């Protein structure tokens, strides 16, 4: 009896000890859980307070609760701010659907400067130095006079050319040497200079020009065209109140589906059974407003090109709220006769 009683007492003592250990472990677990939950609540409270402060800064209101929608807006705002520095110009333009008003622009030096009237890109190529020299003698200032025209008339003039397929060869060196003497080129390093590349070259010119100069208009001119600068400036100035403007000698024309034809259009089937191009400005000279140049820059990767540069440019504005202006002063005959024409 004594022996059995002792064994029973030890068993009960063991059970008591096990119960105390379990209770202790449970208490420890509860304490840890409490600390964890409290920490999370404290963290959430700090986050919530920060969100409230951020929301108050943005809406200018007093202390208020932050809803889920408000929280998501603030988080989205932070993500946008991370990207803002890299795409500030594109986002600003995109917020206005690529369209902006004609206003004075602050250049960041504390002084407001009037926007340039027009940047004119004279499309040229290798082996046409005689054409360029003729333009320099006829209507394009050189040296200090070129800078004076920019400052006084707000007109920027540059020859536009790409690079040789054999980058750095004698063709490239000749252009580089000429540019060192005249300083009047836009050399598109990423563009191969070839006839079939002309549409892409025109697109790249507009992209480069709108990212380099803040102008009201951007004009493309061939290097066999005579331009009356004063008359061109006066004509463009009459359209300053039209923010989405496409100005040129508007035409249409037949789409040629025969591969052997000089003006063959590989995408001829896209132009309908009548095989006629939509209305677009003749390629000798045309101008687009700043908003349209920005549109091209922003959507560069989405805008496709056709066989001809003038058709390609016209295609980019189909479906947009753009004012097509048929300007007789921009009508030249070089596309039909090969002769030099005048824009007066």
From TrEMBL:
Named cofactor requirement(s): Mn(2+)
A GO molecular-function annotation: galactosyltransferase activity
Keywords for this protein: Glycosyltransferase, Golgi apparatus, Manganese, Membrane, Signal-anchor, Transferase, Transmembrane, Transmembrane helix
Broadest EC class assigned to this enzyme: transferase
Pfam families, A to Z: DUF4094 (PF13334), Galactosyl_T (PF01762)
Main location class: Golgi
Domain DUF4094: 19-96
Residues spanning the membrane: 21-42
This protein's GO CC annotations: Golgi membrane
Family matches, as InterPro entries: DUF4094 (IPR025298), Glyco_trans_31 (IPR002659)
Subcellular location: Golgi apparatus membrane
Key word Transferase present: yes
Functional pathway: Protein modification; protein glycosylation
Enzyme Commission number(s): 2.4.1.-
Membrane topology summary: Single-pass type II membrane protein
Family according to the record: Belongs to the glycosyltransferase 31 family.
Name of the protein in its database record: Hexosyltransferase
């Amino acid at each position: 009896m004594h022996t059995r009683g002792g064994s029973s007492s030890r068993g009960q003592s063991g059970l008591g000890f096990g119960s105390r250990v379990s209770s202790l472990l449970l208490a420890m677990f509860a304490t840890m859980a409490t600390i964890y939950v409290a920490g999370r609540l404290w963290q959430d409270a700090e986050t919530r307070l920060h969100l409230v402060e951020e929301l108050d800064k943005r809406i200018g209101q007093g202390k208020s609760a932050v809803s889920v929608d408000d929280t998501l807006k603030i988080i989205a705002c932070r993500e946008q701010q991370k990207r803002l520095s890299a795409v500030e110009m594109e986002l600003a333009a995109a917020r206005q659907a690529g369209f902006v008003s004609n206003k004075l622009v602050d250049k960041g030096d504390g002084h407001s400067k009037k926007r340039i009237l027009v940047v004119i890109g004279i499309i040229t190529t290798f082996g046409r130095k005689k054409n360029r020299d003729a333009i320099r003698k006829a209507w394009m200032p050189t040296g200090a006079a070129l800078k004076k025209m920019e400052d006084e008339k707000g007109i920027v003039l540059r020859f536009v050319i790409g690079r040789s397929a054999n980058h750095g060869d004698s063709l490239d060196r000749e252009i580089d040497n000429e540019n060192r003497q005249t300083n009047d080129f836009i050399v598109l390093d990423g563009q191969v200079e070839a006839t079939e590349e002309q549409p892409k070259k025109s697109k790249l010119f507009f992209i480069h020009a709108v990212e380099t100069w803040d102008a009201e208009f951007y004009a493309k001119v061939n290097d066999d065209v005579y331009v009356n600068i004063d008359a061109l400036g006066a004509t463009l100035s009459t359209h300053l109140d039209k923010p989405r403007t496409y100005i040129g000698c508007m035409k249409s024309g037949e789409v040629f589906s025969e591969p052997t034809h000089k003006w063959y259009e590989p995408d001829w089937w896209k132009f309908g059974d009548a095989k006629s191009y939509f209305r677009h400005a003749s390629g000798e000279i045309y101008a687009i407003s700043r908003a349209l140049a920005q549109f091209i820059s922003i959507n560069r990767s989405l805008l496709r090109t056709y066989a001809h540069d003038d058709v390609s440019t016209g295609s980019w504005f189909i479906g947009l709220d753009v004012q097509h202006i048929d300007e007789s002063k921009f009508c030249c005959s070089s596309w039909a006769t090969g002769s030099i024409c005048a824009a007066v």
